[in-house]
Amino acid sequence: MKTIGIRKENKGPFERRSPVVPSDVEKLVGAGFKVLVEKSEERIIPSEQFSASGAVIVDQFDKKDVDVVLGIKEVKTQYLLQGKVYLFFSHVIKGQHYNMDMLREILKKRITLIDYETIKDDKGRRLIFFGRYAGLAGAIDTLWTFGKRLSSEGIKTPFERVRRAFEYKDLSEAMKEISEIGHEIKQKGLPQTLCPLTVSFIGYGNVSSGAQEIFDLLPFEDIKPEDLLKIEDQKYQKNLLYRAVFKEKDLYARKDGKQDFDLDQYYKNPELYDCIFGKYTPFISILVNGNYWDERYPRVFTYEDAKRVWNSEKRKMKVIGDISCDVEGGIQVTVKATAPEKPVFVYNPRDGSVVDGLEGEGIAVLAVDILPSELPLESSQHFSHTLMRFIPDITLEEYDKPFESLKLPPEIKNAIVAHGGRLTPNYEYLKKYL
């Protein structure tokens, strides 16, 4: 009988998610698998619920106990078991220096590492993700930041009632309160000094769509990105927010100006393009970033953009909700990641200084890197149900043979970062980071 282990997360006190929930554990047990669950007081789902679903609760795995270990976040090196199969978000595929010690240990112990982030279909679309829940929690926290930031400036709005996502009983309670705030704005309007209140979203995938679900609870008028440039000259309403969603064609232009934006060309040759987002930034009140970025692509919001915002007459931008949270990445002023209990810092464009908290001169930046953990139950349920279709094939495979001989679904085989002490062909580029 093959054994699946659900590990206790130890990344930090706010990581309360589980990769598999009890209803899916019951299905695995019914299919003939043994399921072990490491005891955890922090996990959002009590151990008793797993036990009632047929799992065996243990204090800690050892190498005799388990064949496949399922987790969420990175595993500390002392907990990695020789020769086992691990699934978790490893955060190594960009060569993240802070996880290279972990990757070295994975290779040393001949562990098979399957990274959720790289489980994709034949069109390159991710199949296992928390993106929507990052967006939902990130939008709630962005509104919390906005309300508290305005309050610190002596501007009273209904947004100051918003709590952080983890402070609500569940997602439905958060959405109910934000809906009530939206109704109040519709009835009473917003302070004139904030109007027109504009919210811009970077990206249109799962993260951005999740964030927009929260903003949909507020009274909105959708506008095109180019409409931002003239919004101050138009008639606007105090009881509406104005939303602009930016896609690649709105963000980038050919450096030589010779042709219109071409998405395929941009992805293949991003060096041919410049970012043009900076011209919009003086007209944005809240910037929400849900876009994937890596170093091949131009940054969306740079230090120079921040200076332009701060030197503009109105200094309109109050908050950046950087849900993607690539440190010094697409949003360059995200100079560090934050934690749910201290989620915000203020970046001063004048000198690049940073002050933790909600007060100080500059732009408030929300940059929590574990946002889905603020909605631990709902995000675990979604993740578990999505992961379930892959677990049997992963668990039943024999991993003591060469990588080339593994008979796994292509979505899984292509997501194996390391096997038998070596990086697999798709990930050999990581050698330079090791």
Question: Can you offer a commentary on this structure?
Answer:
With 434 residues, this protein is an alpha/beta fold. The chain contains twelve helices and 18 strands. It has helices at 22-30, 47-52, 100-108, 131-152, 171-188, 206-215, 248-251, 263-268, 303-311, 376-387, 391-396, 410-413, and strands spanning 3-6, 34-38, 56-58, 68-70, 85-88, 112-115, 197-202, 220-222, 241-246, 252-254, 273-275, 286-289, 319-322, 344-347, 354-356, 363-366, 416-419, 422-423. Strands 3-2-1-4-5-6-17-18 form an eight-stranded mixed sheet. Helix 4 packs across helix 6 (206-215). The model has no long low-confidence stretch (mean pLDDT 95).
Layout: helices, strands, pairs:
Blueprint: E1 3-6, H1 22-30, E2 34-38, H2 47-52, E3 56-58, E4 68-70, E5 85-88, H3 100-108, E6 112-115, H4 131-152, H5 171-188, E7 197-202, H6 206-215, E8 220-222, E9 241-246, H7 248-251, E10 252-254, H8 263-268, E11 273-275, E12 286-289, H9 303-311, E13 319-322, E14 344-347, E15 354-356, E16 363-366, H10 376-387, H11 391-396, H12 410-413, E17 416-419, E18 422-423
Helix pairs in contact: 4-6
Tally of contiguous helical segments: 12
Mean pLDDT: 95
Oligomer: single chain
Element-level helix/strand string:
EHEHEEEHEHHEHEEHEHEEHEEEEHHHEE
Helix content: 25-40%
Strand order of the largest sheet: 3-2-1-4-5-6-17-18
Strand content: 15-25%
Q: How many strands in all? A: 18
- From the N-terminal CA to the C-terminal CA, the straight-line distance is 36 Å
Outline, from the CA principal axes?
A: globular
Main sheet overview: 8 strands, mixed
Structural class: alpha/beta
Uncertain residue ranges: none
Radius of gyration: 23 Å
